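Work Package 3 (structural annotation) set out to generate three-dimensional models for the target panel prioritized at the project kickoff. During this period the team completed the workflow that converts sequence records into C-alpha cells, so that structures can be stored uniformly alongside our sequence database. As a representative example, we reproduce one entry of 371 residues exactly as it appears in the project archive.
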Amino acid sequence: MNIFIFTETHSGCYKWRGAIPAKYLRRRGHTVQIFSDKSARSNVGPDAIIFAKTHFAEAKPLVEWCKKNSVRVVFDTDDALDLVQPENLNYAGLQQTLPAYEFLLKEADVVTTTTDTLAAHLRNWNPNVAVIPNSVDADEWTPKPRGDGVRIGWTGSPTHFADLPIALDVVRDLQKKYPFTVVLQGICLEPSLEALHDSLLRRRGKQFFQTPVGKSFKKFLEKLSGIRYEFHPSVPIEDHARKVCDLALDIGIAPLLDDRFNRNKSCIKYYEYAMSGAVTVASRVLPYSTEVPITAKNKREAWTQQLEFALTTNRDSLWREQRDWVLTNRNIETTAPLWEQACAKRGQARISPPLRNSCLSPFCPVEHASS
C-alpha cells in the first residue's frame, strides 16, 4: 500500500503515532510518506491517508477528495481532546481545533487509538474504532550502566504540572532518609525551572500565574522546594530515547491525577522507563492500573510505601520483569500489522505499485515534507 500520514513532526505524539509505525510499515514493504503541512506532492496516489489528531488544517476538503477517489481515511488520536482540563498548558489552543477533531472522528473510515478506554469514548462519534497500542522501537533503547547512587526521576512534557505534586512530598520525605538523586527531564527548553518561571513572567506577565495552568505551575515549584534535584531540559524528539537512557534512572515515577482526560491516556512513561533500565512506580489510576505492576493510590502513605519498597528491594529482577512485559506486549515488531490492517480496505493487503505520474489533489503544487 501507499500510505500518507498528515501530522506535525516535533512532538512525542508524532514519534509514537507517526515515526515508529511508519518505519515498521516500510519494513513490511509499504510506501509511507509523512507530510507536516499542506505541501503534499507525490508521484503516486495514496491508498490510505492517516490524519494524526487535528494538525492538518485543510482536513475537510482533503477528506472529501478521499471519499470521491476511494482513498481510505484513517483518523488517529491518542488523547480525548474534548476532555482536556483548563490546567493543561494546551487547553486554550485545543478549544479552536475541537470542530476539526469531531469532524475527523465522524468522517473517518476508521479511527485508531491507544487503549480500550479511549476507544470506548471515541465510539460516541464513530463505531469503527481500532485499538493500536503505543509500542516501542527496541532499536532506539540502550540502557546505560548504573553507578553507585540511586537515581529517581521523571521525564515528560509541560502538561503535567498538576500531576507531579502527587509524589513530590513523598520524594522530599524519603530524600531525608535515603541518599538518592532526584532527576527531572523535559518540561521546557530553558536550562532551569527558574529560567522558565522568569521567561513566563516576562512573556505573559504576572496575570499568567492566576490562570489554571499558571497556578498549577506555581504549586509544582512550591512542592519542589526542599528537594535536591538535577534538571535536564527537553531535547529534540529524535534524541529523546537516548536522553532518557543517559539519565540512568533506577526508578521512574509516573504520578497522575485521576480525571476523565487522564483516564484516556496510555502508559508511555512505563514503556520508556522499562526500556531505559528503570523500575516504574505509578499512580493506581487508569491507564497505569491496567499495566504497571507497582502502583500507589494517590495518597501520601501509599506513595511512601511503594517508593520505599522500590528503593530497598532488588530492582534488577523487577526491572527485567517490566521490560520483558513491554517487549512482549508493546513492541512495534508485533503491533505494526495492526496499522497495516487499519489502512487496508477490505480484502486489501497489497504492496503499492511502481511510481507513476500522479499527485495528491487538491494539494499538489509543492514538494512534500520529508520524514
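Residues 349-371 have pLDDT under 50 and may be disordered.
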